[in-house]
C-alpha cells in the first residue's frame, strides 16, 4: 500500500507545515484522494495556507480528531489550488464525509463565501 493510499483511507490526517524559523505547526484536517495527490481543504486566510505559499514542505501523518498521530509521518509537497480545483476538492469532501461534510462546507460558504476557502494538494515522493 502506498503512502497516498494509506493516508487517503484515514478520516483525519495531521498536516504539519513549517514556520520561517523551522518550527513545526501541526493541524488535523479531513483528507481525500484527488488523483495522484492527497487533498485537504482550508480557510484561505489560515496560517497553514500562508506557510504553504512560502514553502510547500509538509509532513502528513494519520491522526485522530484531536490531532494525536497514530502512524508514521510522511514528507510531502503541498500546493494551493486554483478556484476550479478547490471546487473539485470541496465536492470530494462532500462525497467522503457525507452529511457532516456537506453541513461543514455549507456553513463555511455562508461565513466566508466560495472564495474564502481553498483546496490544498499534497504529493509524495515514491
Automatic annotation (TrEMBL):
Entry EC no(s): 1.-.-.-
Transmembrane regions listed in the UniProt entry: none
InterPro entries according to UniProt: F420H2_bilvrd_red/Heme_oxyg, PPOX_F420-dep_Rv2061_put, Split_barrel_FMN-bd
SUPFAM superfamilies reported for this sequence: FMN-binding split barrel
Gene3D superfamilies registered for this protein in UniProt: Electron Transport, Fmn-binding Protein, Chain A
Top EC class, one word: oxidoreductase
Keywords of the record: Oxidoreductase
Molecular function in Gene Ontology: oxidoreductase activity
Keyword Iron-sulfur carried by entry: no
NCBIfam families linked: Rv2061_F420
UniProt name for this protein: PPOX class F420-dependent oxidoreductase
Species this protein is from: Micromonospora fluostatini
Amino acid at each position: 500500500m502506498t503512502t497516498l493510499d494509506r493516508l487517503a483511507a484515514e478520516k483525519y490526517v495531521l498536516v504539519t507545515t513549517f514556520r520561517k524559523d523551522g518550527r513545526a505547526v501541526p493541524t488535523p484536517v479531513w483528507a481525500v484522494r484527488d488523483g495522484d495527490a492527497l487533498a485537504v481543504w482550508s480557510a484561505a486566510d489560515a496560517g497553514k495556507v500562508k506557510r504553504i505559499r512560502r514553502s510547500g514542505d509538509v509532513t502528513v501523518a494519520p491522526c485522530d480528531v484531536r490531532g494525536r498521530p497514530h502512524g508514521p509521518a510522511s514528507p510531502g509537497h503541498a500546493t494551493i489550488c486554483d478556484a476550479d480545483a478547490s471546487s473539485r476538492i470541496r465536492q470530494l469532501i462532500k462525497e467522503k464525509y457525507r452529511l457532516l461534510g456537506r453541513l461543514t462546507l455549507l456553513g463555511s460558504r455562508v461565513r466566508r463565501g466560495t472564495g474564502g476557502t481553498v483546496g490544498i494538494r499534497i504529493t509524495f515522493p515514491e
